[in-house]
Amino acid sequence: xxxxxxxxxxxxxxxxxxxxxxxxxxxxxxxxxxxxxxxxxxxxxxxxxxxxxxxxxxxxxxxxxxxxxxxxxxxxxxxxxxxxxxxxxxxxxxxxxxxxxxxxxxxxxxxxxxxxxxxxxxxxxxxxxxxxxxxxxxxxxxxxxxxxxxxxxxxxxxxxxxxxxxxxxxxxxxxxxxxxxxxxxxxxxxxxxxxxxxxxxxxxxxxxxxxxxxxxxxxxxxxxxxxxxxxxxxxxxxxxxxxxxxxxxxxxxxxxxxxxxxxxxxxxxxxxxxxxxxxxxxxxxxxxxxxxxxxxxxxxxxxxxxxxxxxxxxxxxxxxxxxxxxxxxxxxxxxxxxxxxxxxxxxxxxxxxxxxxxx
Amino acid sequence: xxxxxxxxxxxxxxxxxxxxxxxxxxxxxxxxxxxxxxxxxxxxxxxxxxxxxxxxxxxxxxxxxxxxxxxxxxxxxxxxxxxxxxxxxxxxxxxxxxxxxxxxxxxxxxxxxxxxxxxxxxxxxxxxxxxxxxxxxxxxxxxxxxxxxxxxxxxxxxxxxxxxxxxxxxxxxxxxxxxxxxxxxxxxxxxxxxxxxxxxxxxxxxxxxxxxxxxxxxxxxxxxxxxxxxxxxxxxxxxxxxxxxxxxxxxxxxxxxxxxxxxxxxxxxxxxxxxxxxxxxxxxxxxxxxxxxxxxxxxxxxxxxxxxxxxxxxxxxxxxxxxxxxxxxxxxxxxxxxxxxxxxxxxxxxxxxxxxxxx
Lengths: 359, 359
Description:
four-stranded mixed sheet; globular; alpha/beta; homodimer
């Protein structure tokens, strides 16, 4: 039997700008089947989480504009399991709001907080590492995170340095920002740096206390409406409080400041699917190293491309190497793979000149 | 007053394969506003022809599958002005069928036969040269064509060599196939070669006689149903006869064999818009030499491209030089400008694997 005080919260409020034009503010990345598996990323996440706790203790926290998408893609969820944010905030408000709601239901709740839009290939290994974190909470309380064993000097991820020990649960030494290439190579060689996966495990009580200490304003604002949580007036109250909360990440706001943070090194075939290149690297590629999602795509003299297009569209490409070609009903992106970090800027440019129409 | 025995026949049965994916067998090139002028090519052709004769003597001959498109785009046409072919044939059957129908109406008819999908910039000059051909018919009967003064050694056009004289109307010496580069350069230097424009002027009687002499089978087949033309049973009869006609061009079938062919050298800013490159060259280009048709197209580090996309679609392109990017609802083409002659092959490949769905 699964542990009855284990809760999972899937964060599904992101916009996924770097995945434009597939991901748009109206229909972001987590609701797409970006890998062509037949399931969207949030559906994959939900099914992965079912290995960890019972369906009735799985929550999704998201911007209210995505409520309908969540309901449609995860029809097993009851209304109480969708935590609706009045607006897209960063991850700290997410963590606090969900923890308070759950803690009010179950004072001994343990929470797995995780993104909805990551790739995890080995689900069993993932479940095993999460279980290790959940079990460890009883022996030594603190904030737990899973750290991914790096396989390359990636400059797109934050890193976590840990203090070496024989225990599979390591004490965290420092969180670092995304490093430059040189530093990333040092991190990789040193052996005690892990990729920050954004997957957290903690007791509801412990994370709430951490907010009280490190983000007291946010804690106070949310604590004011604590009595109203899980009641009919919750929504109205949250609408008032939420806009004044600080838009800060749980990493910056809490993890980097907290003194009792543990990391569990893990390797379960993970990617944050943060850019088109990372999608390319995690996709099936043919002999010409082209990763093609689409039904009628013809490539001539073309290698190393990522082509992503609707099933009912024909695509003919000649003489293109290492490009991204993403076509949707409303927009088309063509750029070199190495420019995938520019996508955010392209989207901003579009916003400036055309408003929200295409983004 | 315009000359009352002058008739114009616009040929609008082509498929424009080299303009895929904009041009498809269901909606070919002549029915598109490929230049972004606000008018389709056949609409531009029709308006150009209005300078030459009265509206009631303008005919369009086309594959019956395009009848509705013609009616929609040229709403002033009466039903009798749309000559409907049971199937797409080459230009010789076009020329004969239209000439017979018109000759039956007016034994002294003079006919301008011209394509529906060419670009002509200087309409006045065009009208002037056509008028010269029409007037010349009275002095020396024969088959007349307009020859375009070449401006470059184009290998995509057929050439017409004429016998030099002081008369603006020249006797044709030879028709040539599309030459290779070396030959095209010789043609250009020689000064007595013109591009074959596919624009013809003749008396109905004279062209019909030419068919009798050079394509006697075709003449005989059509002459059998001569009495039925312009009657209620024309359609039924044509349906029977047309499939057995030879699919041959008017150039091969008649012009190259006829002894009395005249050409009038002309320069009125002409292009057959036969390939994406020719469209590019005839389009407005910005400072980066990009020719863009679309409302929301952002190019970064990109020069010399032709981008053609629907108005309601956003396009972002980075790092592309001298490419063609054509996006329609059903298909997307990306290839180097220099590969524009390959488009036909791309379309054939698609046909082989997917049938007619996308072409």
